[in-house]
Amino acid sequence: MRTELAEILARGRENRVYSAAAWSVGTADGVLDRGLLGTLWRDGPAVAENSRWDLASVTKPVIGMVVGALADRGSLSFDDPVSRHLPSYPAEITVRQLLTHTSGLPGGTPLWRTHSTRSDLLEAIRVGPRRTDGQVEYSSQGFILLGLVAEAAGRAPLDQLVADLVSKPAGLAATGFGPVPDAVATEDCPWRGHVVRGEVHDENAVVLGGICGHAGLFSTLSDMERWAQLLAAGAAPLLKPGTHAEMIACQTPGLNPRRGLAWQCLDVPGSPVGTELARDSYGHTGFTGTSVWFEPGRGRYYVLLTNRVHPTRTTPGIETVRREFHSAAVRL
């Protein structure tokens, strides 16, 4: 007999919002509901436990944890100017501003359309326009820059930092940057001329080589479940308790949307997961149809993985599915 969550997600597949979904809801002590359904691509083989999902912007809080771990080790401070680690970048931008999307770097800019190499795209970010009013503007450019800061402070490539500071200590054997086998398909991409599978969906990330701060990580349901359970328990051994507490607290009071350090706080109205979770909840969504969310007061986590950009990013419905899923899951 299917659970309510399974029914909600099965309807999403039937409505062709995605070809596959996976989910896990629980606490640090155990799972309350989990499952997988659908196919790796439309009319393809069934999704499996070892199937890997393009996390898209759920990469951002993982990179945030890398930065937090570096702060715990004294390699950087949240209030460092970016120029301390990257001397050619503006001194007035801080690491904290990158983490909270208040750096002024713009969001939603398709730099890949006009900058076809890694060096050209990074230079465009370095010299490009930015706002100076201190408002929150969700910016992948900011997290691209944050990945460079992490590499400079950690003195290692970003993929190695993710492995050493997150994946290995958390026991996430199948979490890392692509390309990867056994992946759930994403978009039938006009730019690339094929259905994307096992390579990063985000075009700016493609130009950057697939390893960057804003997108590019792949993971399995079981790995995301394990990571979420660690965070629900307080984030040890990944972060010191004080660092984790600071990162999940709202850093942008009075602004909208409310942001923690690499995390999104619950906004009412406007939350992508609806309004029935506790006010202190936090999480992150990904463009491909992924999300992870937490209620620290209840010790709850909510993992939802879909490929809602398959076969096209214009398919409607993921917003409704997300809200229905979380509204039902919070009642478990």
> How much helix, percentage-wise, in residues?
25-40%
Spans where pLDDT lies below 50 across 5 or more residues: none
Q: What is the terminal-to-terminal distance?
A: 16 Å
- The rounded Rg comes to 19 Å
CATH topology: the name is Beta-lactamase
Please write out the topology.
Blueprint: H1 4-14, E1 20-27, E2 30-38, E3 53-54, H2 59-72, H3 95-100, H4 118-127, H5 140-154, H6 158-170, E4 176-177, E5 188-189, E6 194-195, H7 203-207, E7 217-219, H8 221-232, H9 241-248, E8 264-265, E9 282-286, E10 290-295, E11 300-306, H10 318-329
Architecture overview:
The chain is of the alpha+beta class and 332 residues long. The chain has a single domain, classed as Beta-lactamase. 32% of the residues lie in helices and 14% in strands. The strands form 3 sheets. A 6-stranded antiparallel β-sheet has the order 2-1-11-10-9-8, with helices on both faces. The protein is globular and about 60 Å long.
Structure described in brief:
With 332 residues, the protein is α+β, with helices and mostly antiparallel strands.
What attributes does this structure have?
single chain; 332 residues; alpha+beta; Beta-lactamase; six-stranded antiparallel beta sheet; three-stranded antiparallel beta sheet; 10 helices; globular; Beta-lactamase family protein; hydrolase activity; hydrolase
